[in-house]
Amino acid sequence: MFCRYFSFFGLCLFLPTQRRCSLGHVSSLHSSDTTSLPGFENLTMGYNKYLRPYFGGKPVQIAMSLDIASISSISESNMDYTATISLRQRWTDPRLVFHGNKSFTLDARLVELLWVPDTYIVESKRSFLHDVTVGNRLIRLFSNGTILYALRITTTVACNMDLSKYPMDTQTCRLQLESWGYDENDVTFTWLRGNDSVHGIEKLRLSQYTVQRYYTLVSKSQQETGSYPRLILQFELRRNVLYFILETYVPSTLLVMLSWVSFWITLDSVPARTCIGVTTVLSMTTLMIGSRSSLSKTNCFIKAIDVYLGICFSFIFGALVEYAVAHYSSSQKCAAKVPQEGPANELTKEMEEINITNILNNSITSYKQKISFTSIEISGDNVNCSDLTMKSHEKIKCVLRNKMHRIIGYFTIQNPGNVDHYSKLLFPLFFMLVNVFYWAYYLYF
């Protein structure tokens, strides 16, 4: 039986065999439930790491602080973020009080011999402790029994995002710390210095986001097994929209403006105008597919960028349809002006016959108006349906036919050349108005 002594901050360092030394005397080993801290056997005699401080009495107050080393891999598709943090926890254990005003930093492996809080990260998907070159943990013991327990963690935490205003959105994410097994009757959580308990987050430089503000909260989690203390770090991430303006908004706007070039090309240049219309439509379709490929798993959201791309696609498609309408009206107008083939004498005779017929018809019509109570006037496409001799169903058909002729007349383009003239003004004007409403809504509402 032997016991070796080493100097450890002026106290006895113990290497156990079958007996234990404590400041010059030998005592028998206790059961495995009561372990002693090497070098502090006089303090930890009978110390039970399975029982919290103040067991059976007041709850243990645990003060926490955070150092945010990095926030990376903010994923809209998985709705989570990955952060590397240094978590520091402080609490007082009266069983470890010793004389003096010194503090001792212990080997991190001795944490297995002490009671530590069962803190966990709420909504964590994956987490791990860093262990290069050794486990990144720290134990520091103060003379008043205060214990500082620090560890370095990388965790992936869920963050529910609202992407309806993407890419002009602001996301609010949380990092929540909670006790797993000890309820508020056993443990209470507090921030060490309020908002000043969190360091490093204001210095972060993220690829797509800017940390607008952050604040700390103290809350409780009501579970079926009890009420558990919870600490919350809430921070707001505002997306940098400049990247998306250069990548998506500017190209889509230029494609819309390119589609307006066809309004300055004559209606007879069918290949040129058709090529511009089809090319811009296909380019806009490719741009829309590319913008959605990065968010393939969140297509259920109608995002702000989708609305803008849809507006641009509508204007480009409208420019293509405008040419189709103008060209069709122009071709119909030209077909109506083409004279029928035949000798000049036959044309002259036909014109004379038509004139004679018109004179006779006008005479007969005027005569009927004098001797009839009602009349039927045939002028163009409209027919007077007020004849008392007409049956009811004939009158209904007549009224419907007149209304259809009027409706068709409203949509009949008398001068197809005016379509391009009006389009040069209306398309840019409407596009500017839509842009004003779009940016005002998504930036200020």
UniProtKB/TrEMBL annotation:
GO molecular function, one term: GABA-A receptor activity
Family assignment from sequence similarity: Belongs to the ligand-gated ion channel (TC 1.A.9) family. Gamma-aminobutyric acid receptor (TC 1.A.9.5) subfamily. GABRP sub-subfamily.
GO CC annotations on file: apical plasma membrane; chloride channel complex; synaptic membrane
A Pfam family recorded for this sequence: Neur_chan_LBD
Membrane topology label: Multi-pass membrane protein
Segments forming domain Neurotransmitter-gated ion-channel transmembrane: 248-353
CDD domains listed in its UniProt record: LGIC_TM_GABAAR_pi
Record keywords, A-Z: Cell membrane, Chloride, Chloride channel, Disulfide bond, Glycoprotein, Ion channel, Ion transport, Membrane, Signal, Synapse, Transmembrane, Transmembrane helix, Transport
Function text: Pi subunit of the heteropentameric ligand-gated chloride channel gated by gamma-aminobutyric acid (GABA). GABA-gated chloride channels, also named GABA(A) receptors (GABAAR), consist of five subunits arranged around a central pore and contain GABA active binding site(s) located at the alpha and beta subunit interfaces. When activated by GABA, GABAARs selectively allow the flow of chloride anions across the cell membrane down their electrochemical gradient. Pi-containing GABAARs are mostly located in peripheral tissues.
The reaction(s) this protein catalyses: chloride(in) = chloride(out)
UniProt-annotated location(s): Apical cell membrane; Synaptic cell membrane
Stored SUPFAM superfamilies: Neurotransmitter-gated ion-channel transmembrane pore, Nicotinic receptor ligand binding domain-like
UniProt name for this protein: Gamma-aminobutyric acid receptor subunit pi
Subunit field text: Heteropentamer, formed by a combination of alpha (GABRA1-6), beta (GABRB1-3), gamma (GABRG1-3), delta (GABRD), epsilon (GABRE), rho (GABRR1-3), pi (GABRP) and theta (GABRQ) chains, each subunit exhibiting distinct physiological and pharmacological properties.
Signal sequence, start to end: 1-24
TM helices/strands, residue ranges: 241-265, 271-289, 301-321, 425-444
Residues covered by the Neurotransmitter-gated ion-channel ligand-binding domain: 41-240
